[in-house]
Specification:
It comes from Gordonia lacunae. By secondary structure, the chain is an alpha/beta fold. The chain contains six helices and six strands. Strands 2-1-3-4-5-6 form a six-stranded parallel β-sheet, sandwiched between helices.
Length: 211
């Protein structure tokens, strides 16, 4: 489910983009509460979505994904069905254009699972919830960057670093970016968190243009 009704967020434009970006909000471990585009986890990601659109204009298409419910819910993997539908939808509208996934917390977990698909060439995890070694879903051709604060008590930076180290050992282009004193909600070091997304998308776009 793509969030609609937000002016300028999903305007299709006419020029073929060079890159597609899925922005994936966080959630929680277990909850069947309906997902709202106005809840804090969604609101937290709009500045990333908007800043990417402003910086890159028609060179990218940025879609912030909404889920049906707020939780992951164990084996139900609740966010994955709408996230995969969003991936299929943007790829259908822009055939052949590669995708990067940017996710915070549970959204970082969703991003890792989406990146089993070779259409996804990059994953940016922002304080990602990789509790269950979710990085192992990422296909080896993807570029992976994980940004994590060392003061985060909701998801653990040491777990994220372990994932990046494992990916790197397998030859994946993976990088860990520490945020000293950074918490889970990304309300500190705001420039660093925002810049990480802008730099990641810019880097992927430049790499594609130079290929």
């Amino acid at each position: 489910m793509l969030i609609s009704g937000l002016p300028g967020l999903l305007s299709p434009g006419r020029r073929s983009p060079g890159l597609l970006v899925l922005v994936l909000p966080g959630g929680t471990d277990s909850s069947h509460q309906p997902f709202s585009p106005w809840q804090p986890s969604a609101l937290r990601m709009y500045p990333f979505t908007w800043s990417l659109r402003v910086r890159f204009g028609r060179s990218v298409r940025v879609h912030q994904v909404g889920y049906r419910v707020y939780g992951w819910n164990g084996d139900e993997n609740s966010p994955m069905l709408p996230a995969r539908a969003a991936l299929d939808d943007i790829c259908r509208r822009h055939p052949g254009v590669p995708v990067v996934a940017i996710g915070h917390s549970m959204g970082g977990r969703v991003a890792a699972h989406l990146a089993a698909d070779r259409r996804v060439i990059g994953v940016l995890g922002l304080a990602p919830w990789w509790q269950f070694a979710d990085w192992r879903h990422i296909q080896p051709g993807a570029r992976v960057v994980a940004v994590h604060g060392d003061a985060d008590t909701r998801t653990l930076a040491k777990r994220t670093r372990k994932g990046i180290d494992e990916l790197s050992a397998l030859g994946v282009d993976a990088e860990f970016v520490p945020v000293p004193g950074g918490g889970h909600a990304m309300l500190d070091h705001i420039g660093l968190w925002q810049r990480s997304a802008l730099d990641f998308v810019g880097e992927r776009l430049s790499a594609l243009r130079g290929a």
